[in-house]
Design brief:
0% of the residues lie in helices and 53% in strands. Strand 9 and strand 10 form a beta hairpin. By secondary structure, it is mainly beta. The strands form 2 sheets. Strands 2, 4, 5, 6, 9, 10 and 11 form a 7-stranded mixed β-sheet that branches. A 4-stranded antiparallel β-sheet has the order 1-3-8-7, with no helix packed on it. It is globular. It contains no helices and 11 strands.
């Protein structure tokens, strides 16, 4: 059974940066199935950045040019570098692998 553990969230001011990590334990078929989602208060969970099977990365339009997803295959870990953060980036950020979700990490951006 794969388990996902996120870390790196916190409280920052607008314009600052954060780096999230998601470490997966257990046997994984393909790290390309991993990605990041987020859920703001009162809103539905939405895609932020994901790897696709072809190795292409998909980003939400709202984060393009500011966020970068990366991975370390040897560590079964993916990262989300978030720059130029905005208050609207506030929410709980979740790591996903296939149909499994991590517990989430809170990101709060103050104006």
């Amino acid at each position: 059974q794969v388990q996902l553990v996120e870390s790196g969230g916190g409280l920052v001011q607008a314009g600052e940066s954060l780096r999230l990590s998601c470490a997966a334990s257990g046997r994984m078929s393909n790290i390309n199935y991993m990605g990041w989602y987020r859920q703001a208060p009162g809103k539905q969970r939405e895609l932020v950045a994901v790897f696709t099977l072809g190795g292409i990365v998909n980003y939400a339009d709202s984060v393009k040019g500011r966020f970068t997803i990366s991975r370390d295959n040897a560590k079964n870990t993916i990262y989300l570098q978030m720059n130029s953060l905005k208050p609207e980036d506030t929410g709980v950020y979740y790591c996903k692998y296939l149909n499994l979700w991590g517990q989430g990490t809170q990101v709060t951006v103050s104006s």
